[in-house]
Amino acid sequence: MDTGRRQQPPAQSGYILISAMLFLLVVTLISITALRTTALQQRMAGNLHDHQLAFHAAESALGAAEDWLASQTKKNIGSNQPTTSPKIWALDAPELAGMRTKPHRWWTENGSQYPLAANHTQALTEISSQPRVVIQYSHFARDSTNIGKQPRSGINYYRITAHGSGASDESAVIIRSSYAQRFH
Predict the structure, then answer these.
(1) Do 156 and 79 touch, CB atoms closer than 8 A?
(2) How far is CA 27 from the centre of its chain?
(3) Strand 132-142 relative to strand 88-90: parallel, antiparallel, unpaired?
(4) pLDDT value of position 82
(5) What is the pLDDT of residue 101?
(6) What element of type H or E holds 22?
(7) Three-class SS state of 164
(8) DSSP character at residue 92
(9) pLDDT < 50: residue spans in the chain
(10) Which of 167, 146, 130 is nearest to 50 (CA)?
């Protein structure tokens, strides 16, 4: 039976609208957090890559310095050899005090530039500046304590410190090794 009246829909209080707005707010917050996390991870990956470039540059310079020392034919390459290239520093040289904390400019002025040896002829790529090394003469250890007419033979000891930069000079790695060269 039709009484001619239309039924009114039940009154709505807006719960659906509020629920949808809260859902959109949560999704927006999750999206912003995900974007920030991604940006941070990209920066971290870039810094890691930059550090690895600097480490490989320093390692290459260290190897080149060791190869250069191995190629020397003088019986005693000590710290008083002004004509050698690269320069051989004394172990206690005052200019080298605190060299591990010196800025990049100091290394450019005082370190020997890579490449040093004949088998290291190409410059490294993807780095801001070529690595530098400082070679320090430590001491000579004789094979025998006998003093006389026998030829002097023994081992020269050196300390090699290498400084490498990554894609920017802000990322720097300093590594050090000891090197022994036998002379007969």
Answers:
(1) no
(2) 41
(3) parallel
(4) 47
(5) 87
(6) helix 15-71
(7) strand
(8) T
(9) 82
(10) 167
